[in-house]
Amino acid sequence: MTVNTLRRGSNTPPHVDRLVRAVKGAAWMDVAACRTSTVDLWYDPETERAEARQERIDAARAICDTCPVRAECLETAIVNLEPHGIWGGLTTVQRSELIAARERTRAH
C-alpha cells in the first residue's frame, strides 16, 4: 500500500493513517507493485470468513511476488512493528515468526 496512491475502502483499519504518516516519503513506495491497489486487499475485515480470507491473501501475495521492492516493504513493516496486514508478502503471523527467528539468531 503506497502512501502516494492509497485508496481507502470501507474496511480500512484506523491505524492505517498512522502508518502512512510513519512511512510517507519512502522512495520505494513509488515503484511498489501494490501502489494502485485498495487497502482492503491487504487488511483483514473483521467479519471475513476463512475461505475469503485465504483468497484475499493469495491475491495480495500474487502482487507481492511481482514487486521489485518487496524486501523494502517487508523491512518497513518489521521496523515499524506493523501489527496488521500483508507486507512484503507476509501476514502478521508470518512477520511475527520472522522477527522471533531473527531475535533467536541474534541471541546465539
Q: Would you list the SSEs in sequence order as H and E?
A: HHHH
Give the overall silhouette. Answer: globular
Residue ranges: pLDDT <50 for 5 or more in a row? 1-10
What composes the largest sheet? none
Report strand %.
Answer: under 5%
Radius of gyration, in Å, reads 14 Å
Can you count the beta strands? 0
Structural class of the secondary elements? mainly alpha
Give the fraction of residues assigned to helices: 40-55%
Observed structural traits:
single chain, mainly alpha, 46% helix, 108 residues
Note the topology.
Elements lengths: L15 H8 L26 H16 L4 H10 L12 H16 L1
How would you explain this protein's 3D organization?
With 108 residues, this protein is mainly alpha-helical. The chain is 46% helix and 0% strand. It has helices at residues 16-23, 50-65, 70-79, 92-107.
Describe the structure concisely.
The chain has 108 residues and is mostly helical.
